[in-house]
Write a structure and sequence with these properties.
By secondary structure, the chain is mainly α. Helix content is about 75%, strand content about 0%.
């Protein structure tokens, strides 16, 4: 009788878990359908019951990435929880690595992509969506179980580009192309790397190959224009035509804004970045470059406001902290500027520009010895062109 009773209990428990598992699968399906608010509520409920489910935290991280503001840091926390519960959850390494790319933490991204390569992928059927900067929405899919390593090689190359290791990036892109020669993004990024290396002829070959595979590859076409035509009206016309083709794609507006910025057309750049921001306000890049354009016009109030938006999206963006600190300095708010430079050094303790700007701010606050120490640090880390001001400030002590 006791055995029968225990058997009934196990059957009920198994049925209850199966019912709950159905709730998890519904949450995943809701996420895949793009209803992120509902998916968040469903996955949060799941984790309240099953608080040690690494897949639950992985998907909650994926969901958080779809929201604005500090949600990227919450996504990062959930990926870390998932990996603490299951250190061999390969897709969590890939997702966290891609998030690190967005946060400009390129060394961390590379480490995660390397971990992803080394870990057995298991039996999960997790689909990974691949997006290209030239596409609206999903441009392709792959799975963690794919024997073709080209996608992870491509991601490793992006991390190398972020670290300015162009030789390493090119080697990885060549390997990715070996495995998947008909992927236009691989060729476009190879051309980008070759441009950085001043290998114009090779860059043109790679970029033309990208366009041959995908005639609508926007970045490849623009890079070809830059190399072949230089900075002229034809290039601006090409950018304008690209925007006309798909005016709801913020990428076109941003790229034309970059071009205008390069031509010292600050007002025109601001107009294009504003269009990009209105289309996709959660993209920090539009806010950042509009802030830079405002700074060129010495409109420090507007620059500070836009840098604020960047920091709201990514509170540890080093370039935005530097920009906001500079804006506050010129707005005669040195104490607030100092706070930004202190935070920047905490995030990036080997950044020479951070020490330089903290140094001149400290000097303005009549802290000459501390200012001298920071300027010496800036020189130690390779800051060029500050020898005269360093001598002036340090000579007063």
């Amino acid at each position: 009788m006791r055995l029968i009773f225990l058997g009934i209990i196990f059957l009920i428990a198994g049925y209850s878990f199966a019912q709950d598992r159905s709730d998890f699968e519904k949450a995943v399906a809701t996420y895949n359908q793009g209803d992120y608010e509902s998916a968040y509520l469903m996955m949060d409920d799941w984790l309240r019951v099953y608080s040690r489910d690494p897949q639950g935290y992985f998907y909650l991280g994926q969901i958080y990435e779809q929201f604005d503001g500090p949600s990227l840091n919450l996504a990062l926390e959930n990926y870390q929880k998932a990996l603490s519960l299951d250190p061999e959850l390969a897709e969590a390494y890939l997702a966290r690595g891609r998030l690190y790319l967005r946060l400009k933490r390129f060394q961390d991204a590379e480490n995660d992509f390397l971990s992803y390569r080394q870990i057995p992928k298991g039996e999960t059927t997790q689909i990974i969506y691949r997006k290209s900067s030239t596409d609206k929405g999903v441009s392709g899919i792959f799975t963690a179980q794919s024997p073709n390593p080209s996608q992870i090689l491509y991601h490793l190359a992006l991390a190398k580009i972020g670290m300015e290791d162009y030789a390493g990036a090119k080697t990885l892109l060549d390997s990715a192309i070996y495995y998947t020669p008909n992927e236009s993004d691989f060729w476009a990024e190879k051309g980008h790397v070759e441009m950085k290396q001043n290998q114009t002829e090779n860059a043109l070959k790679s970029l033309h190959q990208a366009v041959e595979i995908n005639p609508d590859h926007f970045l490849a076409r623009q890079r070809i224009n830059i190399l072949e035509k230089g900075e002229n009206v034809d290039q601006l016309e090409e950018l304008t035509l690209a925007i006309a083709k798909d005016p709801e794609d913020p990428q076109g507006w941003k790229i034309r804004g970059f071009y205008k910025f390069s031509q010292n057309d600050w007002e025109g750049a601001i107009e294009d970045y504003t269009e990009a921001i209105q289309i996709l306000p959660e993209d920090s890049e539009g806010w950042f470059y509009r802030a830079k354009a405002y700074a060129k016009l010495k409109n420090w109030e507007a620059a500070e406001a836009d840098f604020e938006e960047v920091i709201f999206i990514n509170e540890q963006d080093p370039e935005a902290l530097l920009g906001r600190g500079q804006s506050r300095y010129y707005l005669n708010r040195p104490e607030e500027a100092l706070a930004d430079f202190i935070q920047l050094i905490a995030i990036d303790p080997s950044n020479p520009s951070a020490y330089y700007h903290r140094g001149i701010t400290l000097y303005r606050l009549d802290k000459s010895q501390e200012a001298c120490d920071d300027l010496n640090k800036a020189l130690e880390f390779g800051m060029p062109g500050i020898e005269e001001i360093q001598k002036k400030i340090c000579g007063e002590n």
